[in-house]
Amino acid sequence: MAEIHPTAVVSADAKLGTGVAVGPHAVVEGGVTVGDGTRIMAGACICAGTTLGRENEVHMHAVLGHVPQDVHFEGGETFLEIGDRNVIREMVTIHRGTQEGSTTRIGSGCMLMACSHVAHNCVVGDGVILANGALLGGHAEVGEKAFVSGNVVVHQFERVGRLAMVAGGARVTRDVPPFCLVEGDGRLRNLNRIGLRRAGMTPETVAALGRAYRVLFLGSDAPDAAARRLLSGDEVPPEVREMAEFVLASKRGLCRPKGPRRRRPEGAS
Fold this sequence. Notes:
Helices cover 16% and strands 25% of the residues. It has helices at 193-198, 203-218, 223-231, 238-249, and strands at residues 3-4, 9-10, 15-16, 21-22, 27-28, 33-34, 39-40, 45-46, 50-52, 57-58, 63-66, 79-82, 87-88, 93-95, 103-106, 111-112, 117-118, 123-124, 129-130, 135-136, 141-142, 147-148, 153-154, 159-160, 165-166, 171-172, 180-182, 188-191.
């Protein structure tokens, strides 16, 4: 049975699981599903088309599933799906999809800090952290356990790879490869070594990724050619394969290091 504060407004058409708590002045519209043990705090608004999983924390004045800030939105039925055990802090905004039947998706175990924003049709993987004021443009994708620091702006349609880290205040206008660190000016710095170590990655795997990083981004070949060369090798580690395949799948270009790429010496193979 749900615990609903007397001042909350909960539609009779909303579906609330066991142990759900809805705080003062919160609003839960019709067409919303809230999983067991989820807590919706004071002033939060959960809009039509939103599905929340189990044991989420929705803090004060967050707005989930409101209509997208997109001039192409024509008012059709669209959705927001949020997994389990997420922490969604004060004044976070997450908008539902734009095109009829489309969905914005948030995984499980994420932390979205105060005033962060996830636009329409984004896909955010499990364990992602968006720090205060981070902004994801429409259709952006953020891979599992990536860390997007405070006041970062990710342009629409860009991708941030798994276990990547984007430093505070960065403008991300190109894809961020998995396992990498991007500086505040949007340039690749190196591997996200601290994040990889915290994720339990072995020293051997980190070393293999370091070699792949140098081939992909510091060598003389273009990244796509370097990626194909890496994938043609024998016994390619899965993380190296993931990085190379991410490069090949990029449609909007990749974040790159500062300075020119090294030139291959004459006669080098």
